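Quick log. Single chain, no ligands specified.
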Amino acid sequence: MIQFSITGIGAIPITGGNVQIDDLISDPIAYVQDSDQAAVSSGDSGSSVALQKFVESVSDGQAGVVRGIYAENSMEFPVVQQPSGQPGFVSSQQDVVTEFAMARQYGVTGILAHNYLAGQAFFTLEADDLIQVVYGDGSTQTYQIVEVLHYQALSPKSATSSFVDLDSGETLSASQLFKRVYAGSSHLTLQTCIQVGSEDSWGRLFLIAEPVV
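-> predicted structure:
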């Protein structure tokens, strides 16, 4: 396992390969509703039943704690939280994703997954798809994907790499990218890495989803 000790501020976790990052210093910004159950249940009854079974499987009675994410025909993953003081932690368990604690500080639900594990499913999602965030008390919030963003990491194994927007060609620092995807109004961000050739952390994929109210 590769270990990194980061002393910079404003980092993007690495979600490709078997890489863990320890000791990220927080606050990158300082450095530089009701759920729409009808949207899901209006489809066939099978999808509603599948969602309900998933909700029951991850619920543990803890209100306000994210315990699962669900997208019909794409994913149903339990969510684990990062250990205290380890903002670069990403679960290495199969079919398990991780909530990004640093994003939560800014009112954003950030979900991290390695691209060789649960993150593979993120590539099947598209704009307008619906995602259910499931909380420990069994409540859910529906989000709809509004943006799919692709970035190249100029230093693939560095959490403080600069990034190039593959659509516009714009270059951003790690702090600037953090602010773009993990700050602002309350929303959901899914992140995994993009592999090119043998470089499994070549880039980053972000799915930005807004709450459906």
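DSSP finds four helices and twelve strands in the chain.
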